[in-house]
Design goal:
Length: 286
Amino acid sequence: MKIAAAIRTLASRAATRSTTATSSHHHLVTGSAAAPRLFSAAASSAQQQQTTGGLPESITRIGNPTAFPNEYPGQNYIFNWALNADGVTPLKKAAFRITKPLDLQVAGLSLPKTSPLKVDAKSERANIPEAGSSDKLDFDTFDDILQSTKDSLSLSDALYCPEGFAPGSRTGVRLIVSNLGKGIVPDLVAYLDRAPKRDPKSQPVTCYILSGSKTEFAGYAIEEVEETLEDGSRMAVSVATVVITGEKPNLKRIVAGIELCVEGLEADAKERAEKKAAEEQEKKSA
């Protein structure tokens, strides 16, 4: 009898423990506030992926994916449009805008040996006449050679385009140099003053340099055009163009052309300023 009583006592205790454990387990599941939210978020995410073609939320909430432009060193859409405005279309898709020494390395060119580079071009000034200013070069001849030079540059395997300020000024200069003349490009970069970083646009002085040509030519032209300002008004400004072609155009002749253009642009700007001041003075006196 004592044994039977002991067995009943042990069975009773085991049943009590089982009930307590079960009650505690249900309490942990139903009493937790965080667990249902976690499971609910997972279910919601799974449902959303089903409705968005399996794309994660991190993509769908940003927007639809777009194709990345096919750009690479030498192929930059904005710069290509700027060259188009200058009359040159880089058909071989290799046009390098070079505004600093690092751009030379990107273009596969060597760094200049001396920087900044001072160039004495006085001896070459007589060899680069201004169109329309003398019998040496008329506008029709200049325009014809300019157009043929632009066409040849467009067909060049690569274009190297140093860009910056003419030394000692704030006059922007862009040179468009053919592939065969790339050896002179580092010196041109070292000669120009570095300009602030900005999107490419047409410059007051544009130089077209064609190497490997059987036609030896050098000349420049200055013309007045109207420029639209930010407020929509129009203002007269002068722009200059240099054209140098030949088997191997030399640095001094190119620099002489740039210097003559800068001097001509400054003279035109001074003349317009004096004319405007005289007109204002006349209005005040009237």
